[in-house]
Design brief:
With 306 residues, the chain is mainly alpha-helical. The chain is globular, with a radius of gyration of 19 Å. 48% of the residues are buried.
Length: 306
């Protein structure tokens, strides 16, 4: 009985894909740190509730994707073993029932809504708290959820760039200060471009499965050749927007701190130009490096204000 419980718990944790929560939590920490450095505002209980809400929104989005992407994930599990694509494989492999993903997605989004209500009306974090929360919760929940299913409408990747870029930084800052610093409207750009690319590159291993299942995401719509161009352009924009941030008031130290992430981003561009992404093993490495670029951009900004 105990062993069965442990196996189920491990399967549920794998379904939740905890390493991928970092791409949402780090920008939120950045916004909180900015509020402290720029305005001297820091409320630990607000941070704790905010981080919990962000994690629940991501949990809801990930579990919803596992449930509504069962067809393409089953095909992907037969075609490749890339851990950055094709979902967690827990449902296709029969390690956890599909209904678990569905109901935990529903429960998570409701708990996130409850946290938003507490933040706005109990902690009095500002009149736009719930609005900002819904800006992230609704696109996240409906990214895969029928009948809206943003991922099949060619808009999902762009919304992810916004929801994991501007939104967590601005929301975290707002619930600490009830305002949004103008610099946030610029410093989110490299985070947004890089997270767009994380989602976009992860679609390459799933291209055949998504096309077969009728999942018309952006890559399926434009094809791999044009997709390669879009990815390279966004990677270059990630680097350029990061390097120009001192022009908008970000401490110049950000240039030094972002150099490792910029170097990795340019390395991926070179590998893509050589068509190395067509090798499944190389593509898996590039997907991992791609996540490192996004995390590196958030860390560089945190360190620059340290």
């Amino acid at each position: 009985m105990k062993n069965r419980f442990i196996q189920n718990l491990r399967a549920w944790i794998a379904l939740s894909r905890p390493p991928f929560h970092a791409v949402g939590i780090l920008p939120f920490f950045l916004g909180t740190f900015l509020a402290y450095r720029l305005e001297g505002a820091f409320h630990p209980e607000v941070l704790a509730l905010g981080v919990s809400g962000v994690m629940l929104i991501m949990l809801s989005a990930y579990h919803s994707g596992e449930y509504f992407d069962q067809k393409e994930n089953a095909i992907s599990s037969r075609l490749h073993s890339n851990p950055f694509a094709g979902g967690s494989r827990m449902i296709p492999e029969g390690k956890i029932p599909a209904r678990v993903a569905f109901w935990t997605s529903m429960a998570a989004i409701l708990l996130a809504l409850l946290i938003g209500i507490v933040l706005q009306f109990v902690c009095r974090t500002g009149p736009y708290t719930l609005f900002l929360g819904l800006l992230g919760a609704l696109p996240g929940f409906f990214y895969s959820t029928e009948p809206v299913r943003l991922v099949k409408r060619g808009l999902g990747e762009v919304l992810i760039g916004f929801c994991y870029g501007w939104l967590p930084v601005a929301s975290a800052y707002y619930i600490q200060t009830a305002s949004i610093a103008p610099v946030i409207h610029w410093l989110w750009l490299p985070i947004g471009f890089s997270i767009f690319n994380v989602i976009f590159l992860n679609e390459f291993p799933d291209y055949e499965a998504d096309a077969a299942a009728g999942k018309k995401n952006l890559l399926v719509r434009i094809g791999k050749s044009k997709g390669k161009v879009v990815y390279i352009l966004c990677n270059l924009l990630t680097c350029l927007t990061m390097l120009w941030l001192p022009c908008f008031g970000v401490p110049f130290q950000v240039v030094y701190f972002c150099l490792p992430a910029v170097a990795i981003a340019l390395l991926i561009v070179v590998e893509m130009l050589k068509n190395r992404h067509e090798d499944p093993r190389c593509l898996q490495i590039l997907c991992g490096l791609n996540v490192a670029v996004n995390i590196g951009m958030s860390l560089a900004l945190i360190l620059a204000y340290g």
